[in-house]
TrEMBL record:
InterPro entries tied to this protein: IolE/XylAMocC-like (IPR050312), Xyl_isomerase-like_sf (IPR036237), Xyl_isomerase-like_TIM-brl (IPR013022)
PANTHER family reported for this sequence: HYDROXYPYRUVATE ISOMERASE, INOSOSE DEHYDRATASE
Name this protein carries in UniProt: 2-keto-myo-inositol dehydratase
Domain Xylose isomerase-like TIM barrel: 40-304
Annotated organism of origin: Streptomyces albus
């Protein structure tokens, strides 16, 4: 007598999308990247409904033009992205707000609901040169927390967006220890987390455990996986993040870790609507490489129930 296979879970609280990053886009302009119109054509053809803006200036920054270009392809915008160095304190506030405001204005005009905030890198993405100490001082942690809360209030008041802070390799918010310290230091009503499953695994974290422990703080998901063999080499050699990506450390699901079905199911169990944006770091990559991967990834996520 055969044992019936369990039914695929219904993950109806997750809104699946993709991002320019999955097409090898890291910069507003770069000759190694596909043109913006090709990204929009292919992300729609691959079966995604939601997208992120990517680096400001890659997609058209005229809200009317971008609204027309996305609408005619059946696409909607979930979020914009900014980098910040708020651990440096009030001295960097004005410069930070200047770049945040332009991204938030465009995202808000496209009816997005979130702003993904990535802390600045502590070492150069290409050379591995240390730009500042790897660990923050107690005072810098206080600046980081206070600055994020201030940013969250102003972004919400002026643009109606919620910020979600993205733990990221080679930044000061990376490992479980640092992520938990940041969450414990910030107001949960103001500051949520963008849990990137690949970056968190890259830094040794367990996404399912974090969702179960801090579920009320999870405001957004980035879906990616890490190749464990390449990651072991990266750790052994101290390779910085940029070269690690070129080495292929972020891989196509379901070939890496963490396993995504348990992550998706844990997120579904939170009982709230969440964006789950595929964001496979692939800079640089051949122009014909992203689309087949994006299409296969979308089919894989559907097989998981999303």
């Amino acid at each position: 007598m055969s044992v019936p296979r369990p039914a695929t879970p219904v993950l109806d609280r997750l809104r699946v999308g993709s991002a320019p990053d999955s097409w090898g886009v890291w910069f507003p302009e770069d000759e190694q990247q596909v043109p913006w119109w090709r990204f929009l054509d292919e992300v729609a053809e691959a079966g995604y409904e939601w997208i992120e803006l990517g680096p400001y200036g890659y997609l058209p920054t005229d809200a009317g033009v971008l609204r027309e270009e996305t609408a005619r392809r059946g696409l909607k915008v979930s979020a914009g992205t900014v980098f910040t160095s708020l651990h440096h304190g009030p001295a960097v506030w004005e410069a930070t707000w200047e770049q945040v405001a332009r991204v938030a204005a465009l995202a808000g005009a496209l009816d997005a609901s979130h702003l993904v905030v990535i802390p600045s890198f502590w070492r150069d993405d290409k050379t591995a040169k240390e730009l500042e100490p790897r660990r923050l001082s107690a005072e810098q942690w206080r600046h980081q927390a206070a600055g994020m809360e201030r940013l969250a209030r102003r972004v919400r008041e002026e643009y109606g967006l919620g910020i979600v802070v993205h733990p990221h390799a080679d930044t000061h918010i990376d490992t479980e220890e640092n992520v938990v310290r940041f969450l414990d230091a910030t107001d949960g009503e103001l500051v949520k987390l963008c849990l990137d499953t690949g970056h968190y695994a890259y830094c040794g974290g367990d996404s399912v455990e974090l969702i179960r422990r801090y579920g009320e703080r999870i405001g957004y998901l980035h879906l990616k996986q890490v190749d464990p063999d390449i990651l072991a080499d990266v750790r052994a050699k101290g390779t910085p993040f940029g070269p690690a990506v070129r080495q292929g450390v972020m891989c196509e699901p379901p070939r890496g870790v963490p396993e995504l079905p348990p992550v998706l199911e844990a997120a579904q169990e939170l009982g709230v609507d969440l964006f789950a944006i595929v964001e496979q770091d692939m800079y640089p990559c051949p122009p014909d490489q992203p689309f087949p991967i994006a299409e296969r990834t979308r089919r894989f996520l559907r097989s998981c129930g999303a």
